[in-house]
Amino acid sequence: MRSLLSLVPLALLARSAYGISWSLILGNDNTWVQQKYTVTVPPPPPAGVTDGPWYFWCGLQPSGGGVIQPVLGWKTSENNIINPGASFPHVWAMNLWSLPWNYGQDGAPTTQESAGIWADQGAQIASTVTWENGQWYQQANVLNGQAAGQTVEMYTPASYFLGDNASGDNTPMTVCESELDGGQTSQWDFSVTFTDIYFEAASSDGVESLCASAIDHSDGNGYISFTGFSMIDNKTCYWSSITLSPQ
Ligand SMILES: *[C@@H]1O[C@H](CO)[C@@H](O)[C@H](O)[C@H]1NC(C)=O
Ligand SMILES: *[C@@H]1O[C@H](CO)[C@@H](O)[C@H](O)[C@H]1NC(C)=O
Fold this sequence. Notes:
- Strands 2, 8, 9, 10, 12, 13, 14, 15 and 16 form a nine-stranded antiparallel β-sheet that branches. Strands 1, 3, 4, 5, 6, 7 and 11 form a seven-stranded antiparallel β-sheet that branches.
- The chain has a single domain (5-246), classed as Jelly Rolls.
- The chain is built from one helix and 16 strands.
- It starts with 20 loop residues before the first strand and ends with a strand.
- Strand 13 (217-218) and strand 14 (222-227) form a beta hairpin.
- The chain is mainly β.
- Bound molecules: 2-acetamido-2-deoxy-beta-D-glucopyranose (2 copies).
């Protein structure tokens, strides 16, 4: 069983992990206020891989650190699952995380983690992260497959994302990442696809040009590709798919 510390290698420690990390960072004090996407549960890691966890996610990040993120994970939520008796192989679970901007410092709030949902290969899971009524709300909902209808949700106070002089919705960064931990990350051999991705900002300032700058690329450890970019309105970017693939 892993310690709490080993459960928290998400964005804060992303540099220790292997994979692709892509971000869009707003300027001029504009911030992201909503994220929505659907992720399709991939195949299991290759049979010989026993070391993890492996995480796939898009999330919103304050400028000072921390992250708010629905996470599809392998070897992450075994201890706290809402459908522990699911009759398919227990490989991938979706859960919701919030790490405060000052995670790990004295007096920092604790990390929040929702219960997980086992979902079977090929199932689609819709998730939202929304700034509303002065707090953050996250939800994940399995749309189809054997866990269809299972839902988790979580509220996070604005105080998690203070710091850097900002208030409330201090989340200028959106990040998508394959975050692979452990000693067998080079064996990652499947793609993970997000569909119907929306990122909505507080204002239109800089949004369209920033989103339009997203291009298919490698970061040396993984590859990201995009299809179907459009602006829903002048502050909301949309892609029909974003795919994270091994190098
Ligand atoms: C707040 O921002 C101002 C101006 O950028 C800066 O001088 C000050 O140090 C910041 N304070 C904190 C606590 O970050
Ligand atoms: C963005 O769209 C809103 C609503 O249609 C409009 O009121 C606003 O003027 C637009 N902003 C810019 C900078 O075009």
